[in-house]
Amino acid sequence: MDELLRDFLTETTEHIEGAETQLVHFERNPSDASLIASIFRLVHTIKGTSSFLGLERLERVGHAAESVMGMLRDGVPPTQHSVTLILAAIDRIKTIIEDIGKHGSEPPADDSEIINALEAYYAAGSEAAAAAAAAEASVKAEAPAPVSTAPEAPEQVMPEPVAAPAAPAAPAPVASAQPEAPKSQPKAEAASAQPKEQRGQGGGNGESIRVSVDTIERMMQLVSELVLSRNQLLELARHREDDSIKTPLQHLSTLTSDLQDAVMRARMQPVGRLYANLPRLVRELSTSLGKSIDLITEGADTELDRQLIEVIRDPLTHLIRNCADHGIERPDERIAKGKPERGEIRVSAAHEAGQITIDIADDGKGLDTERIKQKILAQGLATEQELRAMSNEEIYRYIFEAGFSTAQVVSNVSGRGVGMDVVRSNIEAIGGSVSLSSVEGRGSRFSMRIPLTLAIAPALIIEVAGQRFALPQTSVVEAVSLGKNYKDLIQNVQHALVLKLREEVIPAVELRNVVGLNSGADDDTNDKLAVVMRVGTESFCIIVDGVADIQEIVVKPLSASLSHLKVFSGHTILGDGSVVLILDPAGIGANLGIEKSTDKKREQARDQGALERRRLVMFRAGSGAPKVLPLSLVSRIEMVETSRIESSDGRMMVLLQGRLMPIVPISHEIDMSRSAYPVLVVATETRSIGLMADEIVDILEEKLEIQLTSANSELIGSAEIRGEAVELIDVSHFIRMADPPARGNSTPQRVLFAADEQVLRDLLCPAISACGYSLVASSIPADPNEFLQQVSSFDAVIVDADAPVFALPSFQRALKDRANASLVPLIGVSKNPTNRTTRIATEGGLAALLSRHDRQQLIETLAYTLDAAADAKTSNMEIAA
Amino acid sequence: MSSAALAIPAASDVPTAGEESYFTVFAGGEAFGLSVLHTQTIFRITSVTPIPLGPADIVGLVNLRGRIVTAVSLRRRLGIPVDELQNSLAIGIEHKGENFALIVDEVGDVLTLDASMKVQIPAHFDPARSRFMAGLYKVGNLLIPALNIGALFDFAN
Fold it and tell me: Which candidate from B61, B66, B97 shows the least CB-CB separation from A571?
């Protein structure tokens, strides 16, 4: 293609992007004449250049659009109709330009319809007819009519300074740019008004030149080589005594790094480029959906690899469409809910920890969790039990599953053709992720996390049969050293290898077989590694000879003659200058015959529960033997900062993912001055609770055989794992502590814990109060009457039956004769209750005598006796009545 | 080598219409013409990364000053046994946007060939070889086949 034409095409495409945004802003702010003037100039330039290049169709459409825009510029008020016409004309120009890009010339087609509509509007306008008349005339003119415009004589076009695409990125305060803008006026509007100003200034500070991507790529390659040479030089210099070389070499080294940085930066483009089309999109969505939606864009100057910008464009559009479609309510609904009539979609980009996050948030109705759950159940993606254990965020994740139509879940509007699974796979394909959070009635928020650049990715450099390969780290889950356990971990089942890892059975394959490198020396004794990867929802592993290194690699696609090799996705040059091939996890997965099936995976996961060996979390909590918990009970492990833990009603809580989660310390020896504690999150039927441990020791897969059962309700018993005694935690105990059983009466029942021994109080009080009783601990007064006085103000009393005062005859008599024995039950706890002491105690006025070590029994008895006492109270009252 | 026996014009000669300059390259003792228009550089290969599962005639990938090029052995392409790859001589060629390195035994001088020197490729030539020939040229008393770059770097089958 002609160089001149190519330049024109790229330049024009950018110009049009700018014009669209400005037009939408113009429609909202008709008083801003400078906006229309700048749009007019753009179209004028397009028209002029196309006539110069002999592009007739472009020129005619441009001319007609220019006339209408000229009217607006000269003060005719813009109407919905005129803006729609101009947008249609610009669309047509865009289509023609795309076609020229494809075919190298203008494809023949008839533009008379749009030209006539524009001309009719122009004619009506110049006759100073009313806007309504103009609209009608143009509607009539919609019918095809012969082209009447003669091409205008070519004009001399002064090329404008090319505004860098970076221009919209220039942050500008809202107020200064558009003082009359309403409160919700997007910042980006102000920002995009910026290029106009810059253009007006004639490009003083923002000068830029157009450089082809190839040139930048070549610079990247050369810089990489330069870095390599520098490293070699540094290596040489290290072994020399000669100091004279060191200073200049150091300088060279810094310069090289800076240069590398600068070239990398040249590839970057502001996210603002993505934003350019959005106002138009939202405007069209508002019109077609009959909703009023404001678009707010933030962080337009966040820079991203230009390649990635193109990749995210579609997912972003889809998510915005989704927000407008399913999120934002109709204006009447909004008013009814007391929300502002105009909905709001906020797109914000930010640079976070080597990644870019782009959030798309709306203030609409949010997601209907119940309906999503129903859908999950209906599709058999999870069981009811599993659902209960899930946080909302985990539930929302299903929206991104293939075949999980959001349209049916959230609203009835559908037929977009693209599902959320496509959004997810697009984002994951570039090593990013997408998540969703939502507050019902308040709105939802999609978050896309995207790597800064596609070109550079962390990769494992693995070795097999003496050759090195790069494996992108994004899909690697873990690497398991097989070592001497090769035969245990890898099994040959039906001529296929499987890796038995913890509870899971993972398809495995020798990489040397995948790539056909059978060097003959098949030594299993070598310290091989199994690298577990995840592609979509499937896991599989490849067996390699070793991991040589982890490096940031510059990914280069395979050349055409090699692109048929599906197991490789590209190649790269390593730091030592050698070329390695980059393995494609998806390709290897396909090679293994692994399909993307979610159902199969879930079934498998359930079956594996039957395996004898259990995956256990081993951790320490307090002194004593390490504790274990089956991993199946733990939904996840979180590090919780102590500063985030709040204490309320004697219980510890932490706000996690928007919900309060009770925290139960496994050991009472907690040091709140420690900055953070690992918390094992255990899901109960209604919610999650966190068990606070001191440290996580390991996750292991072992047979668990309880050898000593425990009287302590915290523990199920002790077992031996790898020659070490461990204690198996009884989760139900801790759940009870966090989640006391619901009681009918709203006021907690008052329980007195009377014991002289501090140790005993410490031992039992937390468990009792965890059950929701209002507990008062005190010592036992020596005077029995004083004690009875005390007792009468409680619903139940737990008393240390081993206390010396209990042995006093006066005390025993007082207890035996007390009047309210049936109304306020007295429960005794003893170090070592025997049948005899129990009998004596019950005869002596105690409801029960229990072991002080059996909390569970104590709590159950307490609940039971309280119920009995409550019954007695009601019957007493009935009698009194 | 035998290239000295050929009538070779000076490299600076600007070919007139119908004329084209060719490098003489050697593989297995045979001389071939390779259009200079295609060649970018001549270099020695220090290390090659083999491509498992790749086409057999592709020797591997080579780092040519920061650019990854696909190395193709002319010997393998023509069915001549290959002995040593290390330190082989390669010609950097760009074809359809792809960078290739054609590994040859030796590079001789530049020839100017024109259409008048072209003769029909005899029908009994092995098709496995004749498909890599863009034409056969009579240079003095020698017949030199010109290499067909398109076929040489086409690995579609």
Answer: B61
